Known about the structure:
This protein is mostly helical. The chain has helices spanning 3-21, 46-51, 87-101, 122-140, 142-145, 152-156, 204-208, 229-246, 267-287, 310-314, 340-347; strands at 29-32, 41-44. The chain is 36% helix and 2% strand.
Amino acid sequence: MSPNRNILVALLVSGATLLLAGCEHPPVAHEQIGYRGTGMERIVNPRTVAANAALHEAPEAAPAVPADGPKATLLYKNLQVLGDLNVAEFNRTMAAMTQWVAPEQGCAHCHNPANFAEDSKYTKVVARRMIQMTRQINGNWQDHVKETGVTCYTCHRGHNIPEKSWFAEREVATEGRLLGNNFGQNRAGMASVANASLPYDPYTPYLLKANEIRVAGTTALPTGNKTSIKDAEATHGLMIHMSDALGVGCTWCHNTRAMAEWSQSTPQRVQAWFGIRMVREINNEYIVPLTAVTPPDHLGPTGDIAKANCATCHQGANKPLNGAAMAKHYPALAGAAKPADTLAERKAGKN
Length: 351
């Protein structure tokens, strides 16, 4: 074989190696989750699961305390959301929250050590609202979180601000384009859509606003069909985010032969439907209103606050913390359910 041919073969082998380097190599585990012959299988790489095991390990619950005893309001001042607890449960909850959210800073992250009752630190105002949000999720969003529920640790995992949160992207001017910008599309290296050539903000239209999540119209063209290719691409961006956030493929929710057909979808699609609406409520009712009390250096490039998406809780697992039921150990975070008629209105999009 000639030297030139040897070089050519070596280059081809090297190129093939590079191309395959990003592929999953066997063995992988698979689980049938839907109809046979439709590709409705969940593929899992055991090495990836093992590498991320520590991230999804829930901390051990603090020892339980007696359910009776004097109310915390008799000992502490300015208790606006946890005044229903007794002193022992209140202290237990505060200690747990400290470890979940501010293990390095301790109580001083939210409180003025000279006067724990005052609200001089914005973090205390935020924490109070987040407790209310957690109670709302556990009490009224069981269609998504089921009996597992959530705690502060579900999102924070030892960080003051959840690592998986998002800001609005500043539009970047693009030289050479007729209109001078890229309208939120086709920027390389955007992790929000796994580097795909798609609109790179899948969050604002669907997890903050309530845009229709639709790839195809529901009526024949042209009458009544307002779904465009641009809408379809934005929807695909959201689906890529959800797939990446949960560590699953499209068939986790959809039947490949009829992607839009609810009757042929898995139960997870229904749960995801509720999850999208839950995140919208979290962002609009609990997080965005805190923008006014958040320091400017904690805001994003467009002046918005860090918000939630699917990855905030899931972080690559189809069940946050692999389904660890932490909430049941912390009665302070349980929420009272709304009346059934109110819930029905909310699920119908009226509330």
